[in-house]
Design goal:
Oligomer: single chain
Number of helices: 15
Largest sheet: 7 strands, mixed
Strand order of the largest sheet: 7-6-5-8-4-3-9
Distance between the termini: 74 Å
Helix content: 25-40%
Radius of gyration: 23 Å
Strand content: 15-25%
């Protein structure tokens, strides 16, 4: 493999750069070379595989290829109570079989499920980082077999440590006053790094007292709800009402985080919405796609707060996962406060599912009373 180069005396092939390039390749439907010591394997997104590429990989596979799948997807395929990722042997690379196991709602396990190895786990992590389905075709190869191939190579340790490394690189790259309707004293602070594929934003409303517990909301981006007012969720209501509440109550900070679709990405969110339109519960729909209840991480959000000088918060959230993540990252949670949206015929099942299946603190009676017509 090519030697590491330098640019102005610095290593060009750093671990972060290597994973960034691997994510770009993987999202483009090209195989990435994963390395674990002397062991090499090509990893290809199952959802982006096509007949021509699968045929080319067949010549390298020698009957040793396999499909790595998440525990959630395996459960949906019929591997009941499966708690770990697993692999299914692919002695022949059959595109129709790959699609059935990785993509079809009526797919079924058709072979024994074997334990995943470290490379398989990293391949699935690369898929999650790339915001594609967690289903990866893995082809063990030798260095001699791929000589001359223009492949991006990455160590699995770099993939596995990417999220933490990204959080450590968080940097403020811009800030400016942005008056909002109902909250004219507002500043936007843009961070580079963290989770997702874009920059992160802290919206500082008013002048919160940093010496006290600062009202803080961690808000994951929701294109459909925040921008277009979708009735399928309560995200847009929570966003706007939180900013308004902060403006009326001595200020606060809303972190707008690039974690669309509970961290699954907009394309997978639309896939889940399609399944929901066919009668699936929101979490069952995600499981069909191979995702667990919530793929988001919030440790980088705590890093953002620390850089803003916040050490204690009143968490404006219904989600215990967010509270636990903030505490685990070393920021005190002095109190929590529920954030109400507006129930309607399109989102009431979604709200009940968040309460019953993910432990969100949602008082449905209070929500319904809020939505009742006023005399």
């Amino acid at each position: 493999m090519p030697q590491s180069r330098t640019l102005f005396g610095r290593p060009l092939e750093t671990s972060l750069v290597a994973v960034d390039r691997a994510i770009s390749e993987f999202r483009s439907g090209r195989p990435v070379l994963l390395r674990s010591g002397a062991t090499l394997a090509l990893a290809l997104s199952a959802e982006l595989a096509d007949g021509e590429l699968v045929g080319r990989l067949e010549s390298l596979a020698g009957g040793m290829a396999h499909l790595a799948l998440s525990a959630a997807r395996l459960r949906r395929l019929g591997a009941k109570n499966r708690a770990e990722t697993g692999i299914l042997a692919m002695p022949a690379l059959d595109l129709a079989r790959i699609e059935m196991l990785a993509l079809k709602t009526d797919g079924k396990v058709d072979a024994p499920v074997a334990p995943a190895c470290a490379i398989d786990e990293s391949a699935l992590e690369l898929a999650r980082l790339s915001l594609v389905l967690p289903a990866v075709l893995v082809v063990p190869v030798s260095a001699q077999a791929i000589v001359g191939e223009p492949l991006v190579e990455v160590e699995i340790a770099a993939v596995d440590g990417y999220r933490a490394a990204q959080a450590a690189t968080l940097t403020i790259v811009g800030r400016a006053p942005v008056p909002l309707e109902g909250a004219p004293e507002t500043e936007f602070v843009v961070f580079r790094g963290g989770e997702g594929l874009r920059d992160q934003v802290a919206i500082i409303v008013g002048s919160p007292d940093l010496a006290s517990a600062v009202p803080v909301r961690l808000h994951s981006a929701c294109l459909t709800g925040d921008l277009f007012g979708s009735l399928k969720c309560d995200c847009g209501d929570q966003l706007r009402e939180t900013v308004q509440w902060m403006a009326e109550n001595q200020g606060g900070i809303l972190l707008y985080l690039d974690q669309e679709g509970r961290g699954n990405g907009i394309s997978n969110k639309m896939r889940a919405y399609k399944l929901q339109s066919q009668g699936w519960d929101t979490y069952d729909a995600d499981e069909v796609l191979g995702f667990d209840l919530d793929q988001r991480h919030f440790d980088f959000a705590a890093t953002m707060l620390k850089q803003l000088g916040v050490s204690s918060v009143t968490a404006l959230t219904n989600n215990p996962l967010k509270v636990g993540a903030i505490k685990a990252a070393g920021v005190e949670v002095a109190a929590t406060q529920a954030v109400l949206g507006r129930p309607n015929v399109h989102n009431v099942r979604y709200l009940a599912s968040k309460r019953d299946r993910a432990g969100h603190s949602i008082d449905m009676d209070a929500l319904m009373a809020r939505a009742a017509p006023k005399d």
